[in-house]
Amino acid sequence: MPSRSSAVTAQPVSRLIDELSKLPGVGPKTASRLAYHILKTPRDDALGLAEAILEVKERITLCSNCFNTTDVNPCAICTNESREKRICVVEQPLDVVALERTHEFRGTYHVLHGSVSPMDGIGPDQLRIQELVERVGKESPEEVIVFTNLDLSGEATATYLHRILTPLGVRVTRPASGLPVGGDLEYADDRTLGRAMTGRREL
Length: 203
Hints:
203 residues, alpha/beta, Helicase, Ruva Protein, domain 3, Dna Topoisomerase Vi A Subunit, Chain: A, domain 2, two-stranded antiparallel ribbon, 8 helices, 7 strands, elongated
């Protein structure tokens, strides 16, 4: 027997709520509010949102050099010759966005798309670590900054990268203290991220 809520909600609206609730941080109540907000918006605005989502799925790819999201390959940061010969290693593309907002780093990035977490079945082979090793050998950067999250998996990743990169003769550093332990970089404020980048330490 259908629930009372499903009986009073039109099927297209229910489907929209279900799809929105799959987004991270969006629960059923928030999904319902968003769905009814979309329902009230002008048709052109709703179509604009739908088209933007489709465009992202169709045009966005990963940079073949740093593996950040991009609509051109290689990405604009990798092809910018004014960037310094330093590589900042992060876990996710959102971390690049957060660090670029600080204006404290003028090098390039390398996105791992995760962190080493044996409990979750994620090892080095599931990440873009071999590609990083190849980049370091090819580009001979002055420094590799391991800006993974300050949680158990982020620290495990940093330790592993230090072990495999140090024999290549590259300086490997880690953000300074001040970042929230256990927190994601994307949620840290710009000033805290900037201080951590400026005061980084040798691993």
